[in-house]
Automatic annotation (TrEMBL):
GO MF, one example: carnitine O-acetyltransferase activity
Protein name: Carnitine O-acetyltransferase
Sites where the protein binds (R)-carnitine: Y453, S455, T466
Topology in membrane: Peripheral membrane protein
Binding-site list for CoA: K420, K424, S425, E426, K427, I428, S429, P430, D431, S457, R505, Q556
Species for this entry: Salvator merianae
Residue stretches making up the Choline/carnitine acyltransferase domain: 39-609
């Protein structure tokens, strides 16, 4: 057993909060990473067959026969498909992961829409029981201490290795989320990570009333500040930022990436501005001390908080209290609402939520030791010189942002009737059950299925990110069509539901093992661009465009905390659905755009609840046959 295996065994069953100062394990991270397999390139013929199968439920027979022709041409021995496949296999032999760089660029860095709503997910935490500034600062101080506690595990390489389906996962994303930031660029952004430098950052950024501060969170001996110390520092920040900054500089980060890149270059021409921007980019993370959100009924409270996490509520509310390019931003508002927003390029949701689970547990710990109060230097206010041109850029960004804020339709619901336990008791994968409920809800609303994306982790492989589970399948369509068909018997419907969930789980298994079709097809397409061969017809086909137009973009992000992640739709006429299935209930966040007359987040959430209940009723009245 090597050091990595030994440590994994040791920590696998340990509790969430364990003492982190239990020494360092230098080299453990790399040893673990080296032990992981590399991402395979799936066989060409397998992907093409599965592609045709995935198209069946979402395009017409006529379109399908046209695409079959294109596939036949593409897969011919010695044809373009084989040539591109060989190129991919060569790339896989040379690189640590043939996909990850391409994916980072295509999905994130070259994506030009604003990160706000279109890319950055938010997380809604349970409401905290404080209602004033004292409570807000106390909670924020504890949260910072908890996040630094988690950072110690990263720094010491003692972070527990995670497992999926019994296999150890790539831990790289954990090393990318602190002290990092996205930088806008013309055509392509970049991500900087300051943890590897000679002098890793020791400060966090705190934003209050649209004013930015650099708060050092380590003592000169290298020990992190305690909650008491951080609280006093936060009070100093609060007291020096009683008025809102007239120019909410952070709003610039909400803009279209090309406009922001232009404004960024202009902004950092000034030396003071450049230093302030660098301080934010380098900081370990950001803490946003928000003004209270407008009081709303309990029914819509969570949805309102989700909107605050995703965009800050607009230029008149808290959007100026953010630097949206920052990888990790914790948000704590004066009324007890809190959560976070994160920039997606460096990481998927699960590592972010694991950090959050740790922090939330940490905030619940009683404070026993009160540290002696050694006077600490006042946190540094980050100054910006606002030229008329910058002012103009801010005004334009405000206008665009406010349109986006108006456009986002988001509904968070807690489905109380059952959680993971019910499908488990029926020997059904809870994730597959929820995905089939989404298929049923969509079909009932639109009388047709749609291309559906569910993220599948590729972290079993070194530097793995995600692939797509295509939840709309022949089996899911058979089930949703039958469900409301009066000509079908209930026992047939139950059988079709069970079969659809098994098909979904089977797709999940092949996806997490690197055998799904979406990233492979993307790889073949990018290989064609790299080889400068003309784009194969297969990728210019209407069916391909339909297959990539995900009206349902979904993701499971499980957490121990009773929270939910949320994100915007990926197409103008679609839904973004994220869920956290707990044992006895499920938290859902459903988003859509108001500008699309055909979508409605609350209505989708309502159909989803009905679908879950109808499916339970069906299974309970028709138990599976005894084996
Ligand atoms: N009978 C009984 N129990 C079952 C079952 C069955 N037929 N099938 C699964 N279960 C159990 C599992 O053992 C598991 O048990 P646990 O709660 O003790 O861990 C639980 O039900 C959940 O399994 P399932 O619902 O099938 O989902 P999963 O946990 O395997 O997750 C994915 C599926 C697709 C979400 C996961 O593989 C994945 O890829 N996650 C990452 C997604 C991601 O990156 N999202 C973020 C994007 S920003």
């Amino acid at each position: 057993m090597n050091i990595s295996q030994w440590f994994s065994q040791l920590v696998k069953s340990s509790s969430l909060l364990r003492p982190v100062a239990s020494g360092r394990l230098p080299g453990r991270y790399l040893a673990h990473q080296d032990s992981l397999p590399t991402l395979p390139v799936p066989p060409l013929q397998q992907t093409l067959d599965r592609y045709l199968l995935a198209l069946e439920p979402i395009i017409s027979e006529e379109e399908l026969s046209h695409t079959r022709e294109l596939v036949r041409e593409f897969r011919k021995p010695g044809g373009v498909g084989e040539r591109l496949q060989k190129g991919l296999e060569r790339r896989a032999r040379k690189q640590e992961n043939w996909l990850s760089d391409w994916w980072l660029k295509t999905a994130y860095l070259e994506y030009r829409l604003p990160v706000v709503v279109h890319s950055s997910p938010g997380v809604v935490l349970p409401k905290q029981d404080f209602l004033d500034r004292q409570g807000q600062l106390r909670f924020a101080a504890k949260l910072i201490e908890g996040a630094l506690d988690f950072k110690t595990m990263i720094d010491n390489e003692t972070l527990p290795v995670e497992y999926l389906g019994g296999k150890p996962l790539c831990m790289n994303q954990y090393y990318q989320i602190l002290s990092s930031c996205r930088i806008p660029g013309q055509k392509r952004d970049s991500v900087v990570n300051y943890t590897k430098g000679k002098k890793p950052p020791t400060h966090v950024t705190v934003v209050h009333n649209f004013q930015f501060f650099e708060l050092d969170v380590y003592n000169s001996d290298g020990s992190p500040l305690t909650t008491d110390q951080i609280f006093i520092q936060l009070e100093k920040i609060w007291n020096t930022s009683l008025q809102r900054n007239k120019e909410p500089i952070g709003i610039l980060t909400t803009n279209h990436r090309n406009s922001w890149a232009k404004a960024y270059n202009n902004l950092i021409k000034d030396k003071t501005n450049k230093e302030s921007v660098r301080s934010i980019e380098k900081s370990i993370f950001t803490v946003c001390l928000d003004a209270p959100i407008p009081r709303v009924s309990d029914d819509i409270y969570r949805s309102r908080v989700a909107a605050q996490m995703l965009h800050g509520g607009g230029s008149r509310w808290n959007s100026g209290n953010r630097w949206f390019d920052k990888t990790l931003q914790f948000i704590v508002a004066e009324d007890g609402s809190c959560g976070l927003v994160y920039e997606h390029a460096p990481s998927e949701g699960p590592p972010i939520v694991a950090l959050l689970d740790h922090v939330v547990e940490y905030t619940k710990k009683p404070e026993l030791v009160r540290s002696p109060m050694i006077p600490l230097p006042t946190p540094k206010k980050l100054r910006f010189n606002i030229t008329p041109e910058i002012k103009n850029d801010i005004e334009k960004a405000k206008q665009n942002l406010n349109i986006m804020v108006e456009d986002l339709d988001i509904k968070v619901i807690v489905f109380h009737q059952f959680g993971k336990n019910f499908p488990k008791s029926e020997k059904i994968s809870p994730d597959a059950f929820i995905q089939m409920a989404l298929q049923l809800a969509y079909y009932r609303m639109y009388k047709q299925p749609c291309a559906t994306y569910e993220s599948a982790s590729l972290r079993m492989f070194r530097l793995g990110r995600t692939d797509t589970i295509r939840s709309a399948s022949v089996d899911s369509l058979n089930f949703v069509k039958a469900m409301d068909d009066p000509g079908k018997q209930d026992h047939e419907k139950a059988e079709l539901l069970r079969r659809a969930t098994q098909a979904h789980r089977a797709y999940t298994d092949l996806a997490i093992k690197g055998n799904a079709i979406d990233r492979h097809l993307l790889g073949l397409k990018l290989q064609a661009i790299e080889d400068l061969v003309s784009m194969p017809e297969l990728f210019m086909d209407t069916a391909y465009a339909v297959a990539m137009h995900f009206n349902l973009s979904t993701s499971q992000v499980p957490a121990k905390t009773d929270c939910v992640m949320c994100f915007g739709p990926v197409v103008p006429d679609g839904y973004g659905v994220c869920y956290n299935p707990l044992d006895e209930h499920i938290n859902f966040a459903v988003s859509a755009f108001n500008s699309c007359a055909d979508t409605n987040a609350a209505q989708m959430a309502h159909y989803l609840e009905a679908a879950l209940l109808d499916m339970r009723r069906l299974l309970q009245s028709h138990p599976r046959a005894k084996l």
